[in-house]
Amino acid sequence: MRTASEHPGRENPVRIAQITATTVTTAALALGLAACGSGETPSASPSAAASAPASGPKYAGKELTFWRLGDSNPAAQKYTDELVAAFEQQTGAKVKVEWIPWPQVNDKFTAAAAGGTGPDVTEIGNDQVPLWQSQEALEPVTDIVGSGDQTQIPKNLMGLETIDGETYAVPWGGGSRAVLYRADWFKELKIDVPKTWDDLIAAAKKIQTKKGKDVDGFAFNGGSDANHLLGALAWTAGGEYAVKEGDKWVGKLTDPAFKAGFAQYTGLVTDGLSSKSRLTQNTTDIRTRFANNKVGMYLTASWDLPGIDEDSKGKLKGDKLAFFPLPSKDGGEAQSFLGGNDIAVWGSAKEKDAAKEFVKLASGKEWGDKYAKDGGLLPVYPDALAALSSDPAQAPFAAAFAKAKAFPASPHWTEANETKAVLQNAARTVIEGKSSADDALAKANKELEDILNATS
């Protein structure tokens, strides 16, 4: 899931439009945005109905409350109705569905955690799991991910959900980032899609040479979502932000591997591919410049396409735009930030056993793959994800997601990432020549450890 600062549902709800036939499939991958669907009458899945216990419903007379997050658009509503119908037929329980608009989610969760109230089951952003786990608002679901279909979900997709050996939510659908580029410029300038980091640098320099010094060949992101780019480079180099050793977070910003990724990141500006005058721009700022012919490439996802269409007054869409996976230094895909939506049992659930049954059904392969497909997300099951490799629009995101990685699973990560902007400030001091990389990262490492290990 995107951070609160950029999630289109939490801060600025938008619906992916039908841009063109070549980009609509990619647009449907926008994390947290469901594609529009038909209003067919819901019906239970035949396989779910067939699996109903012969001895009779196990939870007859029980009622669960299920929170779904965002807007109840037709596709999301249809999926939810069908899932609920299948569960009710299989178990005899009743399910009450409540839709929580993104701007209200934090307040609803806060009130539920403070008052010991809330749902039995909830959809939840993967980046929010550490926070609500720290508030004892989530029930462990380690037994669910340790049996059945859920054992097929790759462990790297559970980095935010697994805390101190227990898992508190099940991945349900994911999202990743890739490089959005001006395909028309690439064609005009005879630039091949980059396969290595050096290829990307060469392409960026050629764009600047031909399109002007005010154009960022590859835009540097130093804003609130900067770590999606820095993290991709650092992780691919083998680095980590911090690791849990015992009950303490130990910063790894001074390790050689992290330094290598950090050097790539700051090099986008010090090597002249992006301007020093725009060190604090975030993805939204970059998107606006991209729409105004001032950026050749940047790291984002398909949720930016509608905004680019609007900002460019319809001039930038279709075959003028395309995506490719961010390449590593030696070729192949770089690691991507792991975005996604999970499903979890709320800590104060009145019907915990039935709630776990619901989560097990919803996150199993049949309903999990359907959740991702109907909601415009990437599936968490490997075979369904691999099948997307043959789709030109979806392949860059699927390739990135297969190697996706999460930020440190600390409830204080948001403070380090956004409020205190620890890494952004370190990069800025290096780029502005106020500090060496070694000194800046040593200072940032101490600050990161202090924040992640805070007791309140």
What distinguishing features does this structure have?
single chain, 456 residues, alpha+beta, D-Maltodextrin-Binding Protein, domain 2, 2 domains, 3-stranded antiparallel sheet, 13 strands, 40% helix, 13% strand, disordered N terminus
* Helical residues, percent: 25-40%
CATH class of the largest domain: Alpha Beta
- Strand-pairing-aware structural class: alpha+beta
Task: Please state roughly what percent of the residues sit in beta strands, choosing from under 5%, 5-15%, 15-25%, 25-35%, 35-45% or over 45%.
Answer: 5-15%
The Cα radius of gyration reads: 22 Å
Q: Report how far the terminal alpha carbons are from each other.
A: 24 Å
Task: Report the biggest beta sheet as strand number plus sense, adding barrel if it closes.
Answer: 6 strands, mixed
Tell the overall outline. globular
Describe this structure in words.
The chain has about 450 residues and is of the alpha+beta class. Helix content is about 40%, strand content about 15%. It contains 19 helices and 13 strands. Strand 9 (about 240-245) and strand 10 form a beta hairpin. Helix 10 crosses helix 18 (about 420-430) and helix 18 packs antiparallel against helix 19 (about 435-450). The radius of gyration is 22 Å and the shape is globular.
Topology (SSEs and partners):
Layout: H1 24-27, H2 46-50, E1 63-69, H3 74-91, E2 94-100, H4 102-115, E3 121-125, H5 129-134, E4 138-139, H6 142-145, E5 162-163, E6 166-167, E7 170-175, E8 178-182, H7 183-188, H8 197-211, H9 227-236, E9 242-245, E10 248-251, H10 256-270, H11 283-291, E11 297-300, H12 305-311, E12 321-324, E13 339-346, H13 352-363, H14 365-375, H15 382-387, H16 395-401, H17 413-419, H18 422-431, H19 437-452
Parallel strand pairs: 1-2, 1-3
Antiparallel strand pairs: 3-13, 4-13, 5-6, 7-13, 8-11, 8-12, 9-10
